[in-house]
Amino acid sequence: MTVLATDDLAARGAARIAWIRSRMPLLAAARDDLGRSRPFAGHRIGMSLHLEPKTAVLLETLVAGGAEIVATGNHGSTQDDVVAHLRAAGMTVFGSRDDSLDQHHANVASVLEAAPDILLDNGADLAAGIVARGETARVLGGTEETTSGGDRLRGELAGRVPFPVIVINDSLLKAIGENKHAVGQSVVESFMRLTNLMVPGRRFVVAGYGWCGRGVAHYLRQLGGKVAVVEVDALKAFEAALDGFRVASLLDLADWGEVFITATGRPGVLGAEFFARVADGAVLANCGHFPWEIDVPELMAGAASVIRMDEAIERVELPDGRHVVLLAGGRMMNLAGREPKGNSLESMDLGFLLQTLSLERIATRAAALAPGAQPVPDDIDREIARRMLRAMGADR
Ligand code: NAI
To answer: What residue range is the signal peptide (predicted)?
Structure first.
């Protein structure tokens, strides 16, 4: 047996990436295809996205297709061993885990100074930077990973981005594969990992029955949880009822639920009225992107005391003798605590193949696309669904 050396950063990065790469079959097949067609030859792709092992496999795939890479991460999430590995593989990568916010902005500027002609963006930082510099003419197009970046492109940047940007988050395939099934699995895993509590027989309330909420509700029930849903959209509430969940208002469920999980993307879903009625000992957690779904400032303002019980667990004593338990300070629970796993490898394989084929579309057919933000072309969604079905052996 070969024991991999882990005594230097690049080797440690390489060792960690090996497992991830081995479980991303869609990207592996894409590396073979793109290695033959080389759609990115002569193109420089500028990237701003979390620098972690799964992203490294995406970058390797783009390099196999002929791309030159100039990359940086997001503030605070850069993994230094992954960066060291990517640099050793010949990519230009800026940033490290301990960068200040100013340094992070300088890293983004360095990516733009390298004059990429294709952008792989996260939160529209690169697109906004190119617009601010007046350098849009040399950009062929790009992709945007997030909803918030898509909102920026359609809001403050509307009409100012003359090149096409494919918004990965607007894909139906991603909604099914990631928001529903991967978030569902990882939120349930995170509840168990953070609290070590039992799921079977426990009463859960899921607020929001959109893509993420559906997944969370379904996976909790699969493990024997009793699940109720709170939903403001009548059609989705109807769907939840037909899916067999109890559907009621948050205040009606306040003294029924033992665990409340928000998945709405909206602020203040669990607020003062709810805190006044919630049952003693209830656990409050959030899986939405922003840390605002549980009104933590309101909760803390009314608290008699707060006891930190674990890295991601706070016991909040209320003046009338009840207490609630807050997970991860109300931040995204599946990225919190020791060794957060995030979403499954397969869902990221799928999401990064969406990135790869969308970037290929930009490299080969940008002129045929409309300028500005747009959804993933339907044929790409369907092609990846077919490939994923084959990779899963869904017919066996
Ligand atoms: P979605 O738009 O499909 O669903 C949100 C649902 O919440 C909608 O059905 C809406 O009617 C409902 N809602 C809004 N306000 C409500 C309220 N006050 N009470 C009850 N229901 C309410 O959005 P999706 O895709 O489910 O995303 C939800 C959040 O999760 C977003 O913030 C998203 O960014 C985040 N997200 C988190 C991930 C993670 O890894 N934790 C991964 C992907 C998305």
So the answer is: none
